[in-house]
């Protein structure tokens, strides 16, 4: 097992953008990471790798969060063991990924991701899982930044690795410099290059509980700075999603992006158009459904990245600065953040209803005013707004249909019709639609009295609901059935009428 010499601190003149040849070794006595704060399952993986003669490190966002005093959402492991060797060590292991070969070790609902050291730079894996999905939408979509079904652009460059003879060891790039596949294995000294930011490039060594720091990441974490490893333009071209990750970490951690890292964002943002839509969908959920959505929206707009991720949304707010719709969106994102922090379920359906509210409203307002409240106009606007968003983000059908249903329910919520209104309570999208109605009423975009009526309707028993519905419809039928009933006019049945079924 590799055992480096005790390394001195990197010199102050050394560039933080270039990894040092040897790491600074921070002993346990000089850092705050404690095993008591590490997942027991992650420790099991690390100890078994160590006992089998392999190196085992915690790496990435979990080390960063532990140093910041935060609770990591997941724990990633890096090792010199090949994926097949990891699989032989753990019966509860599955190898995944085509673009990056990874080992997933399963412990009930927790998955520990184990990656083999790679020889050169490669896009980093995400470090936050999604919160629990709203039951109305079933389970949360599984995050996979390298889905098996994605279609990569035609490669223009390829190198071969020495670990295997099959195509899984190829490294391929597209014409813009984006890495399409990288399974060339290497050492920890080389693996640091595949990390994106210095704050995410710290290695916690289970052998002696030290932290290995090649890029002054510990100092950047203490200073709350976000610096890209290597030349920023080259690294953003390798993986344009790094631009969105920079915005996400700025929003989540409150870090300040280093000026050299921020400089290329404006001119390279259009590279996001070449990223597979499924991957941008995953990144959108990480931006907006992990507890810092309102801040993420502000950072994306300020950095000019919203125009690349959701062009129609950015265009609407550019043409309607400070509008009620913008205030509605920000308040909706704040409400969602509060639910995440309270460990309550959230749903991508509601998120995209918020994000697309402006474009949908703009499309509706482009039609003659007498058609604004027609159901066909509302549904056509929803379909068009979703199609335009899907040019960049691969919104799954179950969520896009959910957005359509939420907007279709708004007229029924604003103008309930007697006891028919009670059926709306049973609609699978009622709760999300009701939440949207409350938001609209808060900013004067829907009648406040109807929002209050629906709130009260959910609080009372079945008999009172019936009375409220009757009163709303202006019916005068008494609650008691002891008196004589008024008979309605009986319709004459026509001979040869169609089957009522």
Written account of the structure:
By secondary structure, the chain is of the alpha+beta class. Among the domains are: 1-119 and 185-223, Beta Polymerase, domain 2 (2-Layer Sandwich); 151-183, no CATH class. α17 (375-389) packs antiparallel against α18 (397-414). Helix content is 42%, strand content 10%. β8 and β9 (179-182) form a beta hairpin. It has an 8-stranded mixed β-sheet. Strands 7-8-9 form a 3-stranded antiparallel β-sheet, with no helix packed on it. It has a two-stranded parallel ribbon with strand order 12-13.
Short description, anyone?
With 501 residues, this protein is α+β, with helices and mostly antiparallel strands.
Helix and strand topology:
Elements: E1 24-26, H1 40-51, E2 56-59, H2 61-68, E3 76-79, H3 83-89, E4 93-96, E5 102-107, E6 110-116, E7 157-159, E8 171-173, E9 179-182, H4 188-191, E10 202-205, E11 210-213, H5 217-223, E12 225-226, H6 232-238, H7 241-253, E13 256-257, H8 259-262, H9 265-268, H10 277-288, H11 293-303, H12 306-309, H13 311-319, H14 324-341, H15 348-355, H16 357-365, H17 375-389, H18 397-414, H19 420-424, H20 430-442, H21 448-459, H22 462-472
Parallel strand pairs: 3-6, 12-13
Antiparallel strand pairs: 1-11, 2-3, 2-10, 4-5, 5-6, 7-8, 8-9, 10-11
User: What topology, given as strand order, has the largest sheet?
Assistant: 1-11-10-2-3-6-5-4
Overall mean pLDDT stands at: 83
Just give the CATH class of the domain at 1-119 and 185-223: Alpha Beta
Structural class call reads alpha+beta
CATH architecture title of the domain at 1-119 and 185-223: 2-Layer Sandwich
Q: Assign the CATH topology of the domain at 1-119 and 185-223.
A: Beta Polymerase, domain 2
Q: List how many beta strands DSSP finds.
A: 13
β-strand amount: 5-15%
The biggest beta sheet is recorded as: 8 strands, mixed
Percent helix, as a range, is 40-55%
Number of helices: 22
Q: Which term fits the overall shape?
A: elongated
Low-confidence segments: 1-16, 121-128, 137-170, 475-501
């Amino acid at each position: 097992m590799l055992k480096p010499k005790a390394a001195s601190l990197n010199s102050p003149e050394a560039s933080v953008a270039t990894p040092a040849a040897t790491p600074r070794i921070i002993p346990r006595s000089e850092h705050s990471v404690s095993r008591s704060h590490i997942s027991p399952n992650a420790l099991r993986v690390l100890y078994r790798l160590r006992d089998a003669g392999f190196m085992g490190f915690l790496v990435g966002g979990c080390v960063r969060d532990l140093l910041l005093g935060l609770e990591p959402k997941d724990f990633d492991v890096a090792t010199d063991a090949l994926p097949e060797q990891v699989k032989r060590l753990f019966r509860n292991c599955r190898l995944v990924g085509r673009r990056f070969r990874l080992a997933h070790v399963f412990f009930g609902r927790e998955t520990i991701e184990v990656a083999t050291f790679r020889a050169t730079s490669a896009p980093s894996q995400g470090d936050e899982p999604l919160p629990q999905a709203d039951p109305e939408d079933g389970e949360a979509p599984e995050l996979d930044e390298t889905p098996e079904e994605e279609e990569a652009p035609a490669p223009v460059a390829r190198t071969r690795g020495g670990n295997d003879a099959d195509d899984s060891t190829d490294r391929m790039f597209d014409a813009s410099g984006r890495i399409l596949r990288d399974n060339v294995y290497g050492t920890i000294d080389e693996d640091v290059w595949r990390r994106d930011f210095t704050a995410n490039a710290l290695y916690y060594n289970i052998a002696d509980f030290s932290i290995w720091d090649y890029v002054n990441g510990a100092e950047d974490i203490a200073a709350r700075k976000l610096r890209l490893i290597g030349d920023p333009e080259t690294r953003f071209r390798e993986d344009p999603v790094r631009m969105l990750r920079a915005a996400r970490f700025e929003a989540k951690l409150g870090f300040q992006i280093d000026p050299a890292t921020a400089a290329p964002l404006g001119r390279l943002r259009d590279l996001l158009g070449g990223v597979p839509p499924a991957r941008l969908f995953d990144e959108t959920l990480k931006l907006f459904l992990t507890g810092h959505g309102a801040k993420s929206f502000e950072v994306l707009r300020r950095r000019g990245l919203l125009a690349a991720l959701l062009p129609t949304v950015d265009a609407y707010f550019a043409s309607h600065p400070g509008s009620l719709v913008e205030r509605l969106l920000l308040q909706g994102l704040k409400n969602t953040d509060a639910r995440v922090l309270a460990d309550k379920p959230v749903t991508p359906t509601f998120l995209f209803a918020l994000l697309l509210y402006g474009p949908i409203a703009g499309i509706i307002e482009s039609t003659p005013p007498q058609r604004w409240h027609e159901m066909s106009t509302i549904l056509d606007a929803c379909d068009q707004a979703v199609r335009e968003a899907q040019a960049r983000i691969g919104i799954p059908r179950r969520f896009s249909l959910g957005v359509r249903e939420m907007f279709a329910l708004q007229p029924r919520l604003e103008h309930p019709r007697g006891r028919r209104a009670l059926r709306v309570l049973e609609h699978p999208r009622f709760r999300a639609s009701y939440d949207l109605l409350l938001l609209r009423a808060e900013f004067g975009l829907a009648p406040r009295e109807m929002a209050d009526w629906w709130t009260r309707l959910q609080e009372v028993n079945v008999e009172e609901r019936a009375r409220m519905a009757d009163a709303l419809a202006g019916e005068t039928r008494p609650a008691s059935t002891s008196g004589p009933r008024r008979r309605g006019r009986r319709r004459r049945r026509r001979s040869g009428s169609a089957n009522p079924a």
